[in-house]
Amino acid sequence: MRTSEMLLKVENLRVEVPTRHGTLVAVDNVSFDIAPGEVLGVVGESGAGKSLTGAAIIGLLEPPLRIAGGSITLAGRRIDNLPYEAMRRIRGKEIGAIFQDPLTSLNPLYTVGYQLVETIRTHLDLAPAKARIRALSLLREVGIAGADERIDHYPHQFSGGMRQRIVIALALAADPRLIIADEPTTALDVSIQAQIIALLKRLGRDHGTAIMLVTHDMGVIAETAHRVAVMYAGRIVEIGPVRRIVDRPSHPYTKGLMASIPRAAGRRGRLQQIDGTMPRLNAIPPGCPFNPRCTEVIDRCHRERPDLMPAKETQAACWRYEAVADLANA
Amino acid sequence: MAEITAPGPVSSVTLPSRWWGRFADSDLWWSFRRSPVTIVAAGVAFVIIGAALLASLIAPHDPYDLASVSLLDATDPPAWLEGGNWSYLLGTDNQGRDVLSTIFYGTRLSLLVGCSAVFLALLLGVTLGLVAGWRGGIADTLIMRIADVQLSFPAILIALLIDGVAHSVLPREVQSRITLYVLIMAIAMSYWVHFARTVRGSTMVERSKEYIQAARVIGVHPIRIVIGHLLPNVIGPVLVIATINLATAILTEATLSFLGVGLPPTEPSLGTLIRIGNDFLLSGDWWISVFPGIVLALLILSVNLLGDWLRDAFNPKLR
Amino acid sequence: MIAFVIQRLWQSVLVMLAVALIAFALFNYVGDPINNMVGQDTTQAERERLRHELGLDAPFVVQFCRFVGHAVQGNFGLSYQQARPVGQIILEKMPATLELSFMAAFIALLLGVPMGIYTGLHRSSWGSQAMLAISLIGVSLPTFLIGILLILIFAVVLGWLPSFGRGAIVHIGWWTTGFLTAEGWRAIILPAITLALFQMTLIMRLVRAEMIEVLRTDYIKFARARGLTNRAVNFGHALKNTLVPVITITGLQLGSIIAFAVITETVFQWPGMGLMFIQAVTFADIPVMAAYLVLVGFFFVVINLVVDLLYYAVDPRLRVEREAAAGG
Description:
The complex is a heterotrimer.
Chain A: E1 8-19, E2 22-34, E3 39-43, H1 50-58, E4 66-74, E5 77-78, H2 84-90, E6 95-98, H3 112-123, H4 128-141, H5 147-150, H6 160-172, E7 178-182, H7 190-207, E8 210-215, H8 218-224, E9 227-232, E10 235-241, H9 242-247, H10 252-259, H11 299-303, E11 309-311, E12 314-316, H12 322-329
Helix pairs in contact in A: 3-4, 4-6, 6-7
Chain B: H1 19-25, H2 27-34, H3 36-53, H4 55-58, H5 99-135, H6 137-151, H7 155-169, H8 172-207, H9 210-218, H10 222-259, H11 270-281, H12 287-314
Chain C: H1 2-29, H2 33-37, H3 44-53, H4 60-72, H5 86-121, H6 126-140, H7 143-157, E1 170-172, E2 175-177, H8 182-215, H9 218-225, H10 230-268, H11 273-283, H12 286-314, H13 316-319
Antiparallel strand pairs in C: 1-2
Helix pairs in contact in C: 1-12, 5-6, 5-8, 5-10, 6-8, 7-8, 7-10, 8-10, 10-11, 10-12, 11-12
């Protein structure tokens, strides 16, 4: 795909937070693209920087967090340096967001219908009656039965799964081109998770909406995404089509992640795990951040930090693939 | 060709080995140093409390020594005004007592009542809170019901009612001897509830944690668990409440004394002094009320600021 | 809903009975009422006769019931100090206290809520820092000190406003009001401000804390993520959620205004129920003290009840029946 057709381009994004111990880098030199209608999964452990990347894209980084470098471009237009009001117009209209906990995402004092109509009328110039009709159709689309009555109910009258559907409806209210879904199913029961994921997939296809799906659940990614970016300690360590990454991961960390997923079928053995834990932001080792835990570590990993390079069928930030890159560029 | 990029910022935190080094490096001290207001408040509180504690050493006169008090010197203005006398720096009251010295002793009394009342309230409240949180069941319901009812009345009113009733009920002779204790008890009774509630809440949270359950499984005696393991973990917010309540307790004592149901004129606290001076305000002898008033205000203000800082420092959400 | 109301009413009655019990114990068993009423040289036989006549030798429960019965009708016996019915004294003093309290509550809300909203929204501005500093002083200065300070400045030095009393008042039925004369207005300003200051700072800090807390929630974050205007987020969503708990706590504050009125009335010699209580304490006038206790208890119980019901009415989570969670 030609670069100019990309919906979202993130280049060398860097998010910092100044603390009294010094400046910590939470997102370090992250670059990726999302094509229109594509689902990009962003997977990693808690604290890897996935949610912050999403927050930076939609412009909701809470101070003292701030974007310290790089650029974010939406449909050819830079959005990381816009004034507040300009960014506000983009939020909801061009980029929507869904957060993790459906039980706290909705204002308990307003009816669902009020919150929907309010969002619709903020971005689309519709009379209240027309907005309400649109709200009703949105509710039906996300699978709320009896929408005509339930539109006037309060959030606490819905179960968790239903509330998440309402949250999705709200995110889609102004028909954005991109939705950032930050752990949308983590707080839900497993059976509901599948339904919500299926809903997201269907809506993405029907509306042509691209989705940036942030999660730590590799299974969800495998089901839903076209491509996936694996994040570790604030940087992307591997990125590529989802089938390649799941079947033939290149980066040692990704390999560890895939191996640690328990399989129902196939050989039973000990549960694989990656020894150690992801380093805290103020204790990132020099060189490749994964080197203390890496099973394939070589001397160079301790000294120099690798960028993404072509590795087998994906891109991985690992020195073991420098040879491959050399071959490719020779 | 892949670029070689410089390593990211690395800061490994090494803890200093001595405790004062750790304290100096801690968040608590850092937030203290960072707030000039708090530093000033601490300084002021230090000065006032220090002066009060050393009252008998540094007061120029002893206002309780009737022999040294002369009615001829009554209601003299402060030294720098006309009619003033440099041995009575801030003037004298209606009985001829030196205002400055009475302020020293009065502050000491105010602090004594305030600290004792808070301490008593802490003992009562923490104990009841631990019992309610640990035992649960009927003990919990009973204690919390009483607490709820008491909380629906303002603390100062409760203190006033207890103290006022005691005053009018006790015969005169007994009154002057035990006024102090009645006062302390009345204030303590109005504040135990805050401690009890917080400790009960924390206890219930900690009770279900693994380290407590482990201790129970091992067979450690419940009282040892509560005092040795549970208490240290719930004590944090208690300290904050204690500091903030100290300011309120001093304020309450001053108010009760001002209303005439606190400490008597023979052993005046700052509130009593202000009450005495109030009668002379309209006739222009303002110093009897104003100077004790300033000291009282500074004392409460500085303790309040310290309490605020302590609360912000302990609050994880604000970090 | 009905069950809730009945339960709260029942609780209120219980609390009132407890208060009445304490007041009754005070009334009957502190000192000897007979000795308080008669002179020195009344013989023992006459005292016994009097005791029997007044029914003071009846069993505890009977006396208590009689006390409650009388109290409900407003009959608290005769004041030791003034030798006239306590009920009458209370009726005289009540309007003064109520007018003062109302004025103070009004000022406290009028200034406190907007200041709280402003300091909650603009946390680091100069205006906020200034307001917070003043509020700290308002919380730290004892009410009586503020009163004295105001008297010193406005009455003694400047001579603009009176330093005590209610000024000229107008009788309307059994009520006396100071709102219909210029003098009455001038007299109420200083005491009302004194009474209001503490409450105002409390309300301001409360609204601010609540506002900051609300602005941190997920639903506000989501509202911003949907691109709602600042106005909609701050005033449509955040404010509404802030005011719900604030309304209820402010209602409770109303009660403490009545408590602090005692202090203010003493400083300004305002002829209300608070001053009445203090004078009763000084003279050991038990019937008046008992009556004040019951009355204040009643006020608080009613206020708490109304606030609870208000909360119920305002928060839809408590009001509407929960649908069964039928799954996603």
